[in-house]
Amino acid sequence: MTKTTTITHTVELPASPSVVYSAWLDGKKHAAMTGGPATGSAKVGGSFTAWGGYITGRNVELLSGKRIVQTWRTSQFPKSATDSRLELRLEKSAAGTRLTMIHSDVPASQAKAYDVGWSDHYWTPMLAYLRVSNRTEKEIKTMPAKKKTAKKTAKKAAKKKK
Asked: What is the CATH number of the domain that holds 33?
């Protein structure tokens, strides 16, 4: 049996809980948000992939705009490891959304890398994506051309990882 641990993060995101919820579950939005290929489903029992199949899982519980519970595993999980459990709690906040992530049953030998990975491959690109997606069309048109999008930032991070 694989020894496991739990990773917990709380982040403030500049979008409503319903926008964050939709972006997480919709494959195209998830891909745009992280910069990695993704598939998604907004149905309990539906499957998803992220980062080109590196992450796979199923939706266990969905409460629109409030809570997402998924099974979650990477292609690097030990064969003896069961799927981990990912819970996202979404609460309205002054910034937009307070997202609390509870990632349990993570193989202990990989927890440090996943802890850093959540920040580098999810929270940082999500912040950039949501900041841009919340701008009005007029604001986007007047943004300096050199500003990076979340997708470009995440693609560079993924290339460095390889």
From this structure: 3.30.530.20
- 81: three-class secondary structure by DSSP: coil
State the CB neighbour count (10 A cutoff) for residue 111.
16
Prediction pTM value = 0.81
User: Tokens 């907004």, residue?
Assistant: 42
For the stretch 24-50, pLDDT in tens is 999 999 999 999 999 999 999 999 999
Q: Could you tell me if residue 53 is inside a domain?
A: yes
Alpha helix ranges (H) inside the chain:
17-25, 27-34, 111-118, 124-133, 137-141, 150-161
Residue 162 lies in a domain: no
Distance from C-alpha of 110 to C-alpha of 93, rounded to nearest angstrom: 32
Count of the separate structural domains present in the chain: 1
- Amino acid 146 reads K
In the block, tokens 């500003």 appear at 147
Q: Is residue 45 part of a domain?
A: yes
Domain that holds residue 134: 4-157
